[in-house]
Design goal:
By secondary structure, the protein is of the alpha+beta class. It has 4 helices and 12 strands. It has one domain.
Length: 212
């Protein structure tokens, strides 16, 4: 469990005990992406959310070339998400708000190498970069208003789901971590079907908009 928490500390630190499920493929096609200006701004949590602070901003055009191919030319629909917690764990990620039917989800993914460099020419351990894969994690968005209410995945609860229903979605396990391998269309069908299943989205996170 220690290694898993190190790998995804920027999310784990914000919701104690939560190790999110990751996917090799995004939850979105271009036509599924929406942009809600109400999400922009700084959101803060209480003691139960480990002092979480999430800031949503418009994605910077100067970094747009580092987005995945599905989003080339679509940077105006992408959020920059900056995260921190009371232990000063930090993360700077990209996110898309995805609408599937009448439900909203966030697809969060890195746009930089783990070294912090976006430019492969500046990566100090160049050959290590061959082993870094951009992965996605998903959140269910329940409300965007004075409060931002979301539910996160957890790999232990997800494992219970697929143990009970092994054909629910394509996945594999690496170092005891489940990793989704299903295509985007398969992921959308899975997430839509199990959106209200607490084995998929067990962890609640409520943030409050920070006054300017």
């Amino acid at each position: 469990m220690k290694a898993k928490k190190i790998t995804f500390y920027c999310l784990v630190g914000l919701v104690a005990g939560c190790v999110p499920v990751v996917s090799l493929h995004p939850l979105f096609m271009k036509e599924d992406i929406v942009f809600d200006e109400k999400l922009l701004g700084v959101w803060v949590g209480d003691a139960n959310s480990a002092g979480a602070v999430w800031e949503f901003a418009r994605f910077d055009e100067s970094s747009a070339e580092y987005l995945p191919k599905e989003l080339q030319g679509e940077f105006k629909s992408v959020y920059r998400v900056t995260m921190s917690d009371k232990e000063d764990h930090r993360g700077s990620l990209a996110a898309c708000l995805v609408k599937l039917g009448d439900r909203l989800f966030l697809d969060i993914f890195p746009d930089k190498y783990p070294s912090g460099e976006s430019d492969i020419e500046k990566v100090k351990l160049l050959y290590n970069a061959f082993f870094f894969v951009r992965a996605h994690t998903f959140l269910r968005v329940d409300a965007i208003g004075d409060q931002l209410k979301m539910r996160l995945t957890d790999d232990d609860e997800f494992s219970k789901l697929v143990e009970a229903e092994p054909k629910a979605v394509g996945y594999t396990e690496t170092e005891e971590r489940p990793i989704l391998t299903a295509s985007t269309k398969e992921l959308q069908a899975f997430v839509t079907k199990y959106a209200d299943d607490k084995r998929l989205f067990p962890t609640e996170l409520t943030l409050v908009r920070k006054s300017k």
